[in-house]
Every structure is written in C-alpha cells, then in structure tokens.
C-alpha cells in the first residue's frame, strides 16, 4: 500500500505532537502509535478512520495507575513508516526536528499538530500556544523560524517552569501572537474537527457604534 498525501501530512503534524513512531525489533520497519486521553475519543476515531487500512486491530482503551484512561490504536509495522521514524527520531529514540520539515510541513500538518498540542493562551487573548515540551529551546527556535518564514506566523519560544518531584524543570512552548490570528485561522481552521473548535480563539465581534 501507498500512503495518501493526506495521511503523509497528518503523520508530519501528529509527529510534532503526540504521535509515537515505534521501531520494529529488527529495525527494518516501524509503526504509528496513536494514544490520547479518553476525552479525545472523537479525535482518535477520526484518526482511526483515516488510517484504518493500515490498522490490523481495533481502537482500544487502557487505564493508567493514576486512574486516567487512554484510548488509541497502532498501525501494522511497515517499511513506509520507517522513513518517518528516521526523520523524526535520533538513534536513541528521542524525537528531533527533521531536516526536511521546512519542505514537508503544510497547513493541514499544522492543523493536526494544533489539535494534538494546541491551546488558548487565555480566554481574552487571540494568541495561542503549542505545547512543545518534548523539544529543546534550540529546536523550538527552528520551529518558530519555519512557521514565520513559510507561513508568516509571528511566534517565539515561551519559557515554562514545572515543579516535578520537588525539582523545578524548564520547558518551552511556542507562542503564536494574536497579531497572527487571522493568518492562522485562514491557514488551519477548515482542517480542524468541530470537536476541537474549543481549542481555537473565537473571532471577536466588533461592537456597534
């Protein structure tokens, strides 16, 4: 089988988000592992429908030790997915920014990235956040450059502090300025599932004189 252009674009966007690409034991193939909170059931069912020809099993749920529930599915191992594993993971299995990202990142890819990791900065702001905690500040600077250069989105790294086991850790997000609201909306809104509209700022209604 051959991946469709839509499937390729979704893989790119979701890999920047929460998608995990798992290498086969012999290293010759890879598979896609989609798993999200049970609250995102509609989203996972949409992804399952999109990739169902590659999926040998069904959508499954599991419960973590803390009681939270996850839902997801895995594709079969295939050589076609190995390309994306090589592009977006280093030899130690850590996610990295692909050197070809500037060429392959599309508006649809950004939409799926946003559905995975996007959030409102606040209810009052038209700015939005991409929660890119898995990447270093340098990698996020590269992502910001691509978003700015290719899609004219004003963005910058945004430092976040998290207290984990009494230890303060520094992470970085991508902040996309409210000045780019119209550009971002035109770019990705038509690709967003209606169930994900809550993640995107609503247009401001101009007050009548």
UniProtKB/TrEMBL annotation:
Keywords: Chloroplast, Endonuclease, Hydrolase, Nuclease, Plastid. SUPFAM superfamilies: Homing endonucleases. GO terms for biological process: Group II intron splicing; mRNA cis splicing, via spliceosome; photosystem I assembly. It holds the Pfam family LAGLIDADG_2. One of its GO terms (molecular function) is endonuclease activity. Residues 8-183 form the Homing endonuclease LAGLIDADG domain. This is LAGLIDADG homing endonuclease. It comes from Ulva torta. The gene is orf209.
């Amino acid at each position: 089988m051959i991946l469709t252009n839509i499937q390729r674009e979704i893989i790119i966007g979701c890999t920047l988000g929460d998608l995990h690409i798992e290498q086969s034991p012999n290293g010759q193939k890879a598979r896609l592992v989609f798993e999200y909170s049970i609250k995102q059931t509609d989203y996972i069912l949409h992804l399952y429908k999109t990739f169902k020809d590659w999926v040998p099993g069904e959508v499954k749920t599991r419960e973590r030790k803390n009681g939270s529930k996850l839902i997801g599915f895995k594709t079969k191992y295939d050589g076609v997915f190995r390309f994306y594993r090589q592009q977006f993971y280093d030899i130690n299995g850590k996610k990295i920014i692909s050197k070809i990202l500037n060429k392959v990142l599309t508006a649809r890819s950004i939409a799926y990235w946003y559905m995975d990791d996007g959030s409102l900065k606040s209810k009052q702001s038209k700015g939005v956040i991409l929660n890119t905690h898995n990447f270093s500040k340098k990698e996020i600077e590269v992502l910001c450059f691509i978003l700015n250069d290719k899609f004219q989105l004003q963005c910058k790294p945004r430092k976040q502090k998290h207290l984990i086991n009494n230890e303060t850790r520094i992470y970085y997000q991508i902040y996309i300025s409210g000045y780019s609201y119209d550009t971002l909306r035109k770019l990705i809104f038509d690709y967003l599932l209606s169930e994900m509209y809550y993640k995107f700022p609503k247009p401001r209604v101009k007050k009548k004189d």
